[in-house]
Write a structure and sequence with these properties.
The complex is a heterodimer of chains A (about 110) and B (about 120).
Chain A lengths: L3 E4 L2 E4 L5 E7 L7 E6 L6 E5 L3 E2 L7 E6 L2 E6 L9 E6 L12 E5 L1
Parallel strand pairs in A: 2-10
Antiparallel strand pairs in A: 1-3, 3-8, 4-5, 4-9, 5-6, 7-8, 9-10
Chain B lengths: L2 E5 L2 E3 L5 E8 L8 E6 L5 E7 L6 E3 L7 E6 L4 E6 L8 E7 L6 E2 L3 E5 L2
Parallel strand pairs in B: 2-11
Antiparallel strand pairs in B: 1-3, 3-8, 4-5, 4-9, 5-6, 7-8, 9-10, 9-11
Classes of the chains: A mainly beta (about 110), B mainly beta (about 120).
């Protein structure tokens, strides 16, 4: 089973600053990587799939990059509504669609 | 707008059973694969199960294989998860989601608590 490792576990960022989140796969998953956002008490929301394609309605400040085993989610200028937990998920070796442990983006 | 509404969660004893339902609207349900994902209290996401469009293929995480059964009734636009031989570690919020393997739209979740 592919293991997905996200770093850092917590990221403290000021509003308006850039945030960079990392996701590493234990073996290559090509570009079959999705990112989800989850706010407290809410269901997750798909942000990015195919490593870099934004889902419908996702603002352009969210961007994804990477392939193989190393992936990045960048939020160019953090808005108040972006403080949340972010999860990556690989779907190249599916099933199972393994998720990373999450990165919490908190207000600095 | 696609909406997914889960129901059927609650308290069950270890070894017991529950059946979760997910009512879908705003889409041609039969055309889409569907997924179940769970989240234990204070923990991350865990993929549980998926079913193909029209129900021809089903998939399970090792942790639930042989105990859980995913199914769908396209005439009712409803997805199900039959959970048998429940364990304490199955305690979680269970989300249904449109599509697999990528979960494009999620329901609000239903809480399953397994405790004696």
């Amino acid at each position: 089973e592919i293991v997905m490792t996200q770093s850092p576990a917590t990221l403290s960022v000021s509003p308006g600053e850039r945030a960079t989140l990392f996701c590493r796969a234990s073996q290559s998953v090509s570009s079959d990587l999705a990112w989800y956002q989850q706010k407290p008490g809410q269901a997750p929301r798909l942000l990015i799939y195919g490593a870099s394609t934004r889902a419908t309605g996702i603002p352009a400040r969210f961007s994804g990059s990477g392939s193989g085993t190393e992936f990045t989610l960048t939020i160019s200028s953090l808005q108040s509504e972006d403080f949340a937990v972010y999860y990556c998920q690989q779907y190249n070796h599916w099933p199972p669609g393994t998720f990373g442990g999450g990165t919490k983006v908190e207000i600095k | 707008e696609v909406q997914l509404v889960e129901s059927g969660g609650g308290l069950a004893q270890p070894g017991g059973s529950l059946r979760l339902s997910c009512a879908a609207s705003g889409l041609t349900f039969s055309n889409y694969g569907m997924s179940w994902v769970r989240q234990a209290p204070g923990k991350g996401l865990e993929w549980v199960s998926a079913i193909s469009d029209h129900g021809g293929s089903t998939y399970y995480a090792d942790s639930v294989k042989g105990r859980f059964t995913i199914s769908r009734d396209d005439s009712k636009n409803t997805l199900y998860l039959q959970m048998n031989s429940l364990r304490v570690e199955d305690t979680a919020v269970y989300y249904c989601a449109k599509d697999s393997p990528i979960c494009t739209v999620w329901g609000q979740g239903t809480l399953v608590t397994v405790s004696s």
